[in-house]
Amino acid sequence: MSEEIFDLIVIGAGPGGYVAAIRAAQLGMKVAVVEKRETMGGVCLNEGCIPSKALLDTSELFHLAKDRFAGHGIEVAPPAINVGKMMARKDDVVRKLTDGVAFLFKKNKVQTFIGEAKLLGANQQGDQQVQVSGAAAATITGKKVLLASGSEAVQLPSLPFDGESVVSARETLCFPEVPGHLLVVGGGYIGLELGSVWLRLGAQVTVVEMLPRLVAGSDGQVADGLMRALKKQGMRFMMEAKVAGAEKRDGKLVAKVEAQGGVQEIECDKVLVAVGRRPLTEGLGVEGLGIRLERGRVVVDADYQTSVPGIYAIGDLIAGPMLAHKASDEGVVCVERMQGEPSEVDYACIPGICYTWPEAASVGKTEETLKEQGISYKSGKFNFMGNGRAKCMDETEGFVKILAESEGGRVLGVHILGPRASDLIAEAVTVMSFGGSAEDIALTVHAHPTLSEAVREAALDVDKRAIHA
Ligand code: FAD
Question: Which residues does residue 138 pair with via DSSP β-bridges, in sequence order?
Answer without folding.
Answer: 132
